[in-house]
Amino acid sequence: MNASWSTTASPRPAIPGPDTEAVRARDRRHVWHTWTPLAADRSALTLSHGSGHHVWDIDGRVYLDASALNSTCGYAHPDVLRAIVEQASRLHHFDLSVAGHEPAGLLAERLAGQLPPGMDKTLFVNSGSEGFDAAVMMAVSYWTHLGRPRSRVVTFARSYHGATLLSRSLSTLPRNRHLLDSPLPVTRVELPIEPRLSRQEEALPALLAAFERAIGDDPDDLPAAVVVEPFLNVGGGVVLPPGFLRELRALCDVTGTLLVLDEVFTAYGRCGAMFAARREDVTPDILVSSKGLSGGYVPIAAVTVRQRVHDTFDRDPVIGGLRYGHTTSGHAVACAAALATLDVLEKQGLPERAERIGTDLLGRLTPLTDAEEVVDVRGLGLILIVETTSPDLASRVLTRARERGLLLRQVGAAVMAVPPLVIDDEGAAAVAQGLTEAVTDVSG
Asked: What is the CATH number of domain 78-347?
């Protein structure tokens, strides 16, 4: 890492530019913000630049960012920036349906080295939503190739796997509902126990029993795949009981059902390990990863599969391969950014650091459970959740924290802190203090 680069904020003026109100007015006139009520004004917080785990708005105010789901290396990391510039100046991209390029090969090889033996093939796309579409298509196609068609998918009712028609059809979350028919049969598993208790070992038998019933034993109606997030992110910040992935793998093996892990959020150190699957020594059949892969610098996602799944695609009746992809799949600059991000992760031991700092943060925040308005405090790696009694209360906590210079996320009634993995001990202490004070201010 560049010795002059630091995650600690220092006073910096706003980058010179046009009148700030003109910037905000332009945003209000022309930008349609994602996942946002039309009455909300997202231009109120308009960012200018960032460094380490801090960002500055166009008025020059600095914030500690604990809201960036995809930030592994933080902002303006010199090693990642250098890799992006060098690759863009050499070959910015070439369509992988026509030819290959070295960054894609290097990155696919790197991922194979990080995952269990046999997971050797990776399809690159641009987002987790695209990756999940591809994963479900692969799973259903696999059974067709074997001459034993299956199309049903089993997943959590609280799951979130993306915003495309296919991926959002699996979820019952209100924000994901759509007006079109579901493209495939889905069996959704409700949490048999409330989120605050779901992380305990005692929750495991009931959760496994629910999935066993969902999978079933009817040979004419077995699912093509069981698809789960190792941590329910949008579904409420739910930490699942230890051993769940390992036991779910065993359940799938009984019927030959493919296990698809959605590690779009948890992979690349966020969960305290390079992959959540590695925390339980589990080998999925398909693994989708995205957010932290390039640290958010350039969009990219990876769908990595077992060789035995890949090799059935020579039986595809149309092209003898996978009929899926995008012009910018495996973008060369994105692959270069991902390789640089993985270098930083490994050299700085960021997964282990996430586990250590996350454990410390959890200890600092646990006293909030004494507050009447706090239901639970929990965490996984560098994901910290303070569950409150209502979405309105959680929203007010976010507002108060932002006034104090701390950016957080909200999922329903839960407040989530997800700082960049490069955050230092001083920054982590500031997250704990800011979140504690915001909850205290709101709850009185």
From this structure: 3.40.640.10
Domains 20-76+349-443 and 78-347 share a fold: no
Taking CB atoms within 8 Å and a gap of at least 24, the contacts of 172-178 are 173/234, 173/235, 175/35, 175/234
Q: Tell me the β-bridge partners of 156.
A: 189
Is domain 20-76+349-443 annotated with CATH 3.90.1150.10? yes
The secondary structure of 168-206 as a DSSP string is: HTT---GGG--SSPPSS-EEEEPPSS-GGGTTSGGGHHH
Q: Which residue has the higher pLDDT, 26 or 166?
A: 26
Higher pLDDT, 7 or 185: 185
Q: What's the burial of 24, exposed, middle or buried (CB within 10 Å: 0-12/13-18/19+)?
A: middle
Q: What is the pLDDT of residue 173?
A: 73
Contact 341, 333 (CB under 8 A): no
DSSP code string of 90-150: H-----TTT---HHHHHHHHHHHHHS-TT--EEEEESSHHHHHHHHHHHHHHHHHHTT---
Rounded Cα distance, 201 and 316, in Å: 43
304-309 mean pLDDT: 97
Tell me, what's the pLDDT at 160? 78
CB 371 within 8 A of CB 441: no
pLDDT, tens digit, for every residue of 381-438?
A: 999 999 999 999 999 999 999 999 999 999 999 999 999 999 999 999 999 999 999 9
Quote the pLDDT of residue 444. Answer: 72
